[in-house]
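Example record

One chain of 157 residues, shown exactly as stored in the release files.
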Amino acid sequence: MKKYPYLMLAANRLLILTMVFCGVVFVASCSDDDNNPSDKELFEQEMTAALADAREYGPHTDAFAKEVAARFDGCVTEINYKTRESATRKCITDACRPYDLKDLARTTIVAGWDSTELKPVINYLVTTSTERGFFGRYKHQTSDYGYWGDIVNLKYV
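Predicted structure tokens for this chain:
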């Protein structure tokens, strides 16, 4: 083959191209033959798991909210859970996955009516949830309609 080295090079390239081509065919035939779940099925599985997790950590959120409300002479709304339909709609609207939703389980603490009364409550929520390892984020919200509120998201791992 010393006389025709380009044949060897061509044969090597053919072999490489064949291997790559076979690999692509193999991958395509593999995914065609497997029972891989569709994106919709994966989304539904993730939604089921996320909603189940919310039911699991909901009582912890409720207990923490009641602890904070008692400390600051406030009250707490009953814990409520986002429905599957509402969570799905939110995921579609925000183009996100179920575990990206921050309010699958939620409650409201009412403690005071102005910012001077609420500041210590918010500080306590943020500090204590951080110390306990489940602080997610703090966000102050205002609206064009005149209402405002503060959101503290808890994140359980």
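Notes: Residues 39-71 form the longest helix (33 residues).
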